[in-house]
């Protein structure tokens, strides 16, 4: 039985289905990215033109404070932003810079004096701006940026200065061509004391586009992709801005230079500011998801019609997606894409509910814990989703052979444009370390809260874990059906807990007197990353399972449960060395995992087309010569291939 | 102790050291590929200009028959070709099309009538040509191409025809802009009988560049990379060429249309013809190697000076290559690059010794067996080397963060240009299936040659293997030091043999009466690919070990032995699930593998710069802003970092 892709799309569309429908319609109004040979300048001009069209649509306004003409729909605007990934990723990133990063910083780090003055023109796209955080010398460790903002009470101005080339703002979107103003992150110094990194509004260009005095603007030039975005470099030579240009939601400087902030710790203050900008990270994960879906739609539709090599029995050429190795390339990647889609939807919902426009920062513990959880999830999902995008788009390109290498078939641009997602808005490796750090401190807190009996039991468990690891024996090896949802989850939970407990044991060594803390941390770094990945795999699986549970139609629920199973089993297969080494599954069972993945691939093969159609990518955005064969083969009597017509028992697995 | 990179370079340069030295000097004479924003047409024109410079250098002549003014140095020319990968990959591919594929086909498939007429002008670059094999509908299964060459005895001509759009020649280098002639692969029909695919010389453009009557030329347009190469499409509408245009080394058609060939089987004849073209595949593997080396040189040199995040003890910022996770990204990849370099060198040597200019085709069994071995090795190494290139260049890009995404820093072009290597000159997945097929039939032959006692013992071994697999118990688990060379090899050999025996057992099912052969083959496809990979890993390790043995300096041998060990252990680590599942190593031992890789990474860290300098990539070809920090940091008192100065005991491992 084949499910209706429209029914599937309703499930995938979820809470912001109306926004998605609107964006699908809107995409048609933009001038598409060319497969043609645009120069960098031409492509930048086209992207700016499309950005203005977006502004006219009123869609970007939806993410801002209703008090200033915004729609207050943070989740909707992030959803819409990600859906641009079906179309043109340069536009997505340029829009993200303008409204997400620049506008977002003014909104959340600024106060009414900034909102009154700038929000309207930012929303309308009349004031184009930059988010100038990264420096040439500091990309990941942004707490140690070296640009300075020194307050001068005599003139009531801040002096923005770039002390050396390493402190130059680098890779800044909107800087090379269009930006008129920048939110500049700098070490705030007043009365000779540094209070850490703060954000200030700094005009960089005049109306006519020339750099303002003291501002040097460079161009990052051609990039691997995203060439519609004008990334540039900014240096400041004692540039002065009024005191009021400090975005003072979290801290302020009085006329006489007195510094004040409700958050006393400089480090905590900085990370609180950063935390409010989590929207950018979430949006990148969403954009990566859309691009991955598009690549899979292309490769799977091509694979379902392309034929190569004859079946020795029938003499007829075989549809390449009927080959097991082709299924293995594409279908587990498709299942993971589904899983990440639902995890992303949950993340956006959580963010939306948390970032209402009336909450005060850090005002209650519940919000703080929620914010912390949101940041951790966002970091983890961003890392996994963007690496998944890079790997999957690459696989899709290869699965289309030479045709996949031609620009006209869209895959090259998807690949080139998404590549930087793994290292911008937080380098993935650094983000996973962040996740691990939070998991470890939560773990420490859990242990700390235990009573005496609980602590003893906990210590015994730890010891037993350590013993089991040394002996390879585990007291309780749970037996279960590999296709069983609860058993799959048990494996993922056990792995996460195991890795975390072991990491905690290793970290404790750093506390020993005379320990070389750097050596301990460094030696455990790969372990921590593995633990963080295990955590993200598990929360992604939970989101998927919850989404399946919400589906009412039994046939559709059955189909999605198979996809969920394929995701879970392919995660388990990918790390089966862990499960066997630590005695969670037996050697024989581990080999059965591969067989179970193969079986599920075969079972889902006839539904592959339906599953990609469910993404609801507008047909015009998939139109390319690669899919010409589809039209031809639909006319031919030999298609659909026998296996596509074969009925599948949706309940067979899971 | 730090080794001298020049000494290392002599080892890496090997048999064709003089050719490498010459190419290094020659690269400076070419106009480099621009980081600038060239249009497709500008880049094509530049590449053609560089191609002519190459021709003037006389270097391409070295690969051709001395009887026609060539140098007869096949190995040298392939080595030189690959070294172009340090410079511009478009030029490498364009040169490969002109002299390797087009010229090579005329040389090995043609006879004196073609050599006399064309070889000189091909060598000189006066006659630019295409290698027109791939069709839109047939890329991997080239035995079933659909272009026809029908002989007409009345006019003593062949009529070349494209029956439909699927039979159009596609992705053909030199076709869109420069080619004047093409070697066209077509089904040869004479007297109403088809004799399979043969190659014919077909003029496609007049001197002034216009398409000849009946020839339709299309342009593949912009691609993900290699935009200096003019890939295009060729269709033929009953185009007539003289009988003499058949490249008739392996088969001929007499004036009256009588077909003759020393090789009676049409299939064997076709694969013999293809086999002579193995040089292209070997050259791609070499080019991938050069590009990978360049990417690693950039990322490792950057990583050895870039600092990020402070050490909690010293407060000093840490050089990123001192972080374990950064080492794990780059150093095992570097070790694999070394391993593939030596395997490639052996492959080129083998080819050179086999393809002398006086051997007759298929004239003796030894040559035939040698050719077969060469083709299998070439297929396997091409697949592994190009996938390794794609993965490693991606990792290097990410390891350089945002800077790695800028065109000025060279990594984007390396990545985009090499991407298609995994699917051209043979799709990697199809190539590994080819390797597996040969391994299986060799295996069958080994079994077939055994006497009665041998067969019984063999059957018992198989049974025992199967038992061990079911029970997870293995009679002899060899114990050894993970750092021991012999033990590492034992593991790789056992894996290869095990996977092959198991594959043979599965394949036997296809022989059962009534078996669904397609289903059996298809179900075992992933297993076969794993077996092929295991084989290639082992032969690559053997090449590396042999290369280490040839080194005379103890210090250098010690260093290379560490690198070899890192390669071996990272292969074992990557497939440790296999080794544990099948009882080759214990659970505890498997975890020790990861620790051993970490330890080796730390030990090789201080030698990382030396190891990339050993590739001898001309400094001018690495010059980019990414490495500006090197100059700065060399001036700074804090560099070299303490760990770089630390002496390493080269004998500590291995």
From TrEMBL, chains A, B:
One Pfam family matching this protein: ACOX
Span of domain Acyl-CoA oxidase/dehydrogenase middle: 130-239
Residue span, Acyl-CoA oxidase C-alpha1 domain: 275-440
Domain of life, per lineage: Bacteria
All copies of domain Acyl-CoA oxidase C-terminal, residue ranges: 498-626
Matches recorded under SUPFAM superfamilies: Acyl-CoA dehydrogenase C-terminal domain-like, Acyl-CoA dehydrogenase NM domain-like
Record key words, sorted: FAD, Flavoprotein, Oxidoreductase
UniProt xrefs under PANTHER family: ACYL-COENZYME A OXIDASE, ELECTRON TRANSPORT OXIDOREDUCTASE
Name assigned to this protein: Acyl-CoA oxidase
Annotated source species: Pseudonocardia xinjiangensis
Taxonomic classification: Bacteria, Bacillati, Actinomycetota, Actinomycetes, Pseudonocardiales
């Amino acid at each position: 039985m084949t499910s209706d892709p429209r029914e599937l799309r309703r499930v995938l569309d979820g809470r912001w289905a109306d926004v998605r429908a609107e964006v699908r319609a809107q995409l048609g109004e933009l001038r598409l990215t060319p497969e043609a040979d645009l120069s960098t300048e031409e492509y930048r001009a086209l992207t700016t033109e499309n950005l203005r069209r977006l502004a006219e649509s009123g869609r970007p306004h939806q993410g801002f404070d209703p008090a200033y003409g915004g729609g207050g729909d943070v989740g909707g605007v992030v959803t819409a932003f990600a859906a641009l990934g079906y179309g043109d990723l340069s536009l997505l990133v340029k829009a993200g810079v303008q409204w997400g990063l620049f506008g977002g910083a003014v909104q959340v780090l600024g106060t009414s004096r900034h909102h009154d003055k700038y929000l309207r023109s930012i929303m309308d796209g009349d004031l184009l701006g930059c988010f100038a955080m990264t420096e040439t010398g500091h990309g990941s460790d942004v707490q140690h940026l070296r640009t300075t903002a020194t307050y001068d009470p005599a003139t009531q101005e801040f002096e923005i200065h770039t002390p050396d080339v390493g402190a130059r703002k680098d890779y800044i979107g909107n800087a090379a061509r269009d930006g008129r103003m920048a939110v500049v992150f700098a070490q705030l110094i007043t009365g000779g004391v540094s209070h850490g990194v703060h954000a200030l509004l700094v005009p960089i260009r005049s109306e006519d586009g020339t750099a303002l005095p003291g501002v040097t603007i460079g161009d990052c030039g051609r990039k691997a992709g995203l060439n519609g975005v004008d990334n540039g470099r900014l240096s400041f030579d004692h540039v002065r801005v009024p005191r009021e240009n400090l975005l003072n939601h979290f801290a302020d400087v009085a006329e006489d230079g007195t510094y004040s902030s409700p958050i006393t710790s400089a480090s905590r203050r900085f990370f609180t500011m950063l935390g409010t900008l989590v929207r950018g990270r979430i949006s990148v994960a969403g954009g990566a998801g859309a691009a991955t879906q598009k690549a899979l739609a292309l490769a799977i539709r091509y694979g379902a019609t392309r034929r190569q090599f004859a079946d020795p029995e029938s003499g007829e050429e075989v549809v390449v997606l009927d080959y097991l190795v082709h299924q293995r390339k594409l279908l587990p990647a498709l299942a993971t894409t589904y899983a990440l889609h639902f995890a992303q939807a949950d993340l956006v919902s959580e963010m939306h509910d948390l970032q209402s426009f009336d909450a005060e920062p850090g005002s209650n513990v519940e919000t703080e814990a929620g914010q912390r959880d949101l940041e951790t999830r966002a970091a983890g999902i961003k890392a996994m989703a963007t690496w998944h995008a890079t790997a999957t788009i690459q696989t899709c390109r290869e699965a289309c052979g030479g045709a996949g290498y031609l620009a006209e078939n869209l895959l090259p641009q998807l690949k080139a444009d998404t590549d930087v997602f793994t290292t911008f808005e937080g380098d993935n490796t650094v983000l996973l370390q962040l996740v691990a750090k939070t998991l470890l401190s939560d773990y420490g807190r859990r242990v700390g809260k235990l009573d005496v009996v609980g602590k003893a039991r906990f210590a015994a468990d730890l010891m037993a874990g350590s013993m089991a690891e040394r002996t390879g024996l585990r007291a309780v090896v749970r037996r279960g059906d590999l296709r069983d949802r609860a058993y799959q989850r048990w494996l993922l939970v056990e792995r996460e807990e195991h890795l975390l407990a072991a990491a905690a044991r290793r970290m404790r060594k750093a506390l020993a007197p005379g320990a070389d803390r750097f050596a301990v941390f460094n030696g455990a770094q790969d372990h921590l990353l593995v633990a963080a990945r295990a955590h993200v795999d598990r929360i992604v699986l939970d989101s998927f399972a919850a989404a399946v549970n919400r589906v009412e139609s039994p046939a559709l629920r059955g189909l999605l449960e198979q996809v969920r199973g394929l995701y879970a089993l392919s995660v388990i297969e990918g790390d089966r060395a862990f499960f066997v080494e630590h005695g969670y599954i037996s050697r024989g069972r581990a080999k059965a995992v591969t067989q179970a993945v193969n079986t599920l691939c075969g079972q889902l093969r006839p539904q592959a087309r339906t599953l990609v159609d469910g993404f609801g990518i507008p047909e015009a955005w998939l139109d390319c010569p690669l899919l010409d064969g589809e039209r031809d083969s639909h006319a031919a009597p030999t298609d659909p291939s026998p296996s596509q017509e074969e009925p599948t028992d949706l309940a067979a697995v899971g």
